Amino acid sequence: MNSFVELQRNNAEAPFTIKLVLPEYENIKENRISIFSALGAAIFSEKTGTKVVYRTWKNENHIKITDVIFQPEANGNYYVNKHDYGYF
């Protein structure tokens, strides 16, 4: 959680960045995506370069993880802090 991930849809659009968060901190307008959402669950624990398919109510989506910009656990931070949420 609190990971910043760069994604790209179908290699046709410019990449965009999201932050994976707990459900209570989700805010779509600010690109904070719950780890329990369809997209969050699909990319959770995946690596850079992975192509992921996830389903929503209307369709099946294909997305590629172009970069894992920041992952707290990779930097030795294994604790969730409420102040980690809210801002990019």
Q: What features would you describe in this structure?
A:
With 88 residues, the chain is mainly β. The chain contains one helix and five strands; from the N terminus they run βββαββ. It has one helix at residues 38-43, and strands at residues 4-9, 16-21, 32-34, 51-55, 60-70. Strands 3-2-1-5-4 form a five-stranded mixed sheet. The longest helix is centred in the middle third of the chain and has 6 residues, at 38-43. It is globular. This is Transcription elongation factor GreA/GreB C-terminal domain-containing protein.
For this entry, give a set of tags.
Chitinase A, domain 3; globular; 88 residues; 1 helix; five-stranded mixed sheet; 35% strand; mainly beta
Q: What's this entry about, in short?
A:
The protein is mainly beta and 88 residues long.
Arrangement of strands in the largest sheet:
3-2-1-5-4
Radius of gyration: 13 Å
- Helix and strand pattern: EEEHEE
Inertia-based shape: globular
Alpha plus pi helix count:
1
Would you report the number of β strands? 5
Amount of helix: under 10%
What is the terminal-to-terminal distance?
A: 13 Å
CATH class: Alpha Beta
On the 0 to 100 scale, the average pLDDT is 85
Beta-strand proportion? 35-45%
Domain Transcription elongation factor GreA/GreB C-terminal: 1-68
InterPro entries: GreA/GreB_C_sf, Tscrpt_elong_fac_GreA/B_C
Protein name: Transcription elongation factor GreA/GreB C-terminal domain-containing protein
GO molecular function, one term: DNA binding
